[in-house]
Every structure is written in structure tokens, then in C-alpha cells.
Design brief:
11 helices; two-stranded antiparallel sheet; 2 domains; single chain; SH3 type barrels; membrane; transmembrane helix; transmembrane; 7 strands; alpha+beta
Length: 339
């Protein structure tokens, strides 16, 4: 009877899921090129011919690193919470138990390195809540350890977070950046409230509803991020045409000994002869322009730990060529925008 029960509980017909793993990135890559070409077939063929797939795959990989902690930590948290609250098994509980603990720890480390500063308090809240629920599940008889992990550790971590983040919190409220202020203020205080069970009646709707909503909206979020990710360097080309000086701002598709191919922001393709070329400058990506100036000792809330520790490149966004205007004749600007 036990063997029959195990066979009946074994998952079936899950091979189709493995086929979706390589298909989803390929679909995103094709849609990204289709979006960049402004739905023009000839421009799409030009991009496919010249663009390296490595640049497209890097955008998918970076987005996956950002989403991975949400899937692993959130799935393990919701499954454990449902089991502790009801004592019943479900597909969410099975998925949480099949996820190794070292994988969860590794994804938390990845999140600390790749998430923006304003999202790190939320990651800390999820990690502390998961630690408390895990102690309740695996060590139910250790009351002292449960009190320390479920209540003492979140309170201490919350106090230290408020002390460390206080300058950024004050700056966020001063600049009326409500979203950043809430992201820095609420999660440290809520960590101690998420380490216990919830009522049995709403437990399934709460945990499974959040899991299903995350599974549905995560691919959409990844698709939006990848569709907007840069796949070509953004440059400004200044050249002479018919006795006048013109500037084309767009993405560099290809360059050779005779001409440079530039894909404009409006989707038009320009071929500039090198003998008419006067200068080229690398422009900053519009997506890199910060939306808020809130920072913690020079670490802006829209920066991750990796970008904060990495050396910053010197680039002047006020270069007139990046704005579509020719540079003055006497002005010398080196490539990259450094004067």
C-alpha cells in the first residue's frame, strides 16, 4: 500500500516544463529584436545578422539573478507558512520541501549583491521570516531557540537597520519620495510579525494566492525588463553632410573600414561614411539616469552593492552630441565623454 501511495503521489507528465526552460529565453530574445527594429522586417534581419546573442543572453541572465531570490525565498516561505498554519500538504508544501536549504542561502547572497539598496530591507525581512518559520517547523520543542530566532533576532535586526538606514530614510521623507521611504521603513518593523502561523481559514487563500500571482506576473516582469534592456551601445555620431554638420544619436550596429551603421532611436537605420565622420562619443543609457537622489553615504538607493563597489566610469551626460546638437568647433571631447 505504501508503494502504491508513493506511485500515486509521484509527479507525472512534467517533461513539458523542461522544454519551456530554453524556449522562454529564446522568445524573449526574438521579441527584444522585434521591438528594437520597430516591427520592420528588414531592420530585424540586419540586427539578427550583426548582433551577438551573448549580449541578449546577458540581459536575460542579469534579470534572472534579480528574480531568483524572489522565487526561491518566497516559495520556501509560503510553503513553510502553509504547513505550520494548517498541518496539511499541498503542491506548494512539496515544492518548498524539495528546495534545499543551501540553495535558499545562496539566493539570499545573490540578492544582497544584485538587488538595489532600497529593496535590501525587504530581502532581510523575507530571510528572517523564513528562518523563524524553519525553526518552528524543524525544532518545535526548543522554546528558547524559537524565541531567539522568531522574536529576538528580527527585533535586533530591525533596530540595527533603522540606525544604519536613518540618513537615507530622512532624505527620502525630505524629498517626498514616498515609495523609497516605505521600502526603507516598513520591512524592518514587519519582520517579527511574519515568523508565526496565520489562521487556518485564510491560510490557503493567502499563501497559494500569493504563489500563483507571483508565478503569473514574474514572467511578465522579466519580459518587460528584457524588452527595455540595452543590447547595443548608445552613441552620438557627428559628421559632415552637404556642407553642414549633422549629429545622429542611436545604437551602433556595425562598423568597418568604409562606414558605420547606426540604428536611430526612431528605428531608422543610418549609414555614415567614415571619411565624413568627425567624432563619435559614447552616451549614457537613458535608463541609467537616477529617479531619486536619496543615498546612504554615497550609496544611492537605486544602486546595487556590486555597482556601488565597482569603479564608476567617467561620462558626461550633458555632452551636446548626446542631445543631438553638434559640438562646438573648438571643443575637444575624448571618446567616452571625458573632457
Amino acid at each position: 500500500m505504501k508503494n502504491e501511495a508513493r506511485v500515486g503521489d509521484a509527479p507525472r507528465n512534467q517533461e513539458w516544463f523542461l522544454t519551456l526552460l530554453p524556449v522562454f529565453p529564446i522568445v524573449l530574445l526574438v521579441m527584444r529584436l522585434w521591438y528594437a527594429s520597430r516591427q520592420d522586417t528588414q531592420t530585424l534581419l540586419l540586427l539578427v545578422q550583426t548582433i551577438s546573442p551573448l549580449g541578449l543572453l546577458s540581459a536575460v541572465l542579469l534579470t534572472t539573478l534579480w528574480v531568483l531570490p524572489v522565487a526561491c525565498v518566497g516559495g520556501r516561505l509560503l510553503g513553510t507558512l502553509y504547513w505550520i498554519s494548517t498541518g496539511r500538504s499541498s503542491w506548494l508544501v512539496h515544492a518548498a520541501r524539495r528546495l534545499p536549504g543551501w540553495v535558499v542561502v545562496l539566493t539570499v547572497v545573490v540578492g544582497v549583491c544584485t538587488w538595489q539598496l532600497r529593496f535590501l530591507p525587504t530581502l532581510m525581512m523575507l530571510a528572517l521570516a523564513l528562518a523563524g518559520l524553519t525553526v518552528r517547523d524543524r525544532l518545535p520543542g526548543h522554546d528558547g531557540l524559537r524565541t531567539a530566532v522568531c522574536y529576538g533576532l528580527p527585533v535586533i535586526a530591525g533596530v540595527l537597520s533603522y540606525v544604519l538606514l536613518w540618513p537615507a530614510i530622512v532624505a527620502a521623507f525630505a524629498q517626498r519620495d514616498v515609495a523609497t521611504a516605505l521600502l526603507l521603513t516598513l520591512p524592518p518593523g514587519l519582520a517579527a510579525l511574519l515568523t508565526g502561523p496565520v489562521p487556518v481559514a485564510p491560510a490557503r487563500v493567502l499563501t497559494h494566492g500569493i504563489a500563483i500571482a507571483t508565478a503569473v506576473f514574474t514572467p511578465l516582469l522579466v519580459g518587460v525588463v528584457v524588452m527595455r534592456a540595452p543590447i547595443l551601445p548608445l552613441i552620438a555620431v557627428q559628421f559632415d553632410e552637404g556642407g553642414t554638420t549633422e549629429v545622429v544619436v542611436g545604437h551602433l550596429v556595425a562598423t568597418d573600414d568604409q562606414m558605420s551603421t547606426v540604428l536611430g532611436r526612431d528605428g531608422a537605420v543610418s549609414f555614415v561614411r567614415n571619411d565624413r565622420l568627425r567624432s563619435k562619443v559614447l552616451c549614457p543609457d537613458p535608463g541609467e539616469v537616477p529617479r531619486t537622489w536619496v543615498n546612504l553615504h554615497g550609496w544611492y538607493v537605486e544602486q546595487s552593492m556590486i555597482s556601488w563597489l565597482a569603479p564608476a566610469s567617467v561620462r558626461t551626460p550633458d555632452d551636446p552630441r548626446c542631445q543631438g546638437r553638434p559640438a562646438p568647433d573648438g571643443e575637444r571631447i575624448r571618446p567616452g565623454g571625458a573632457r
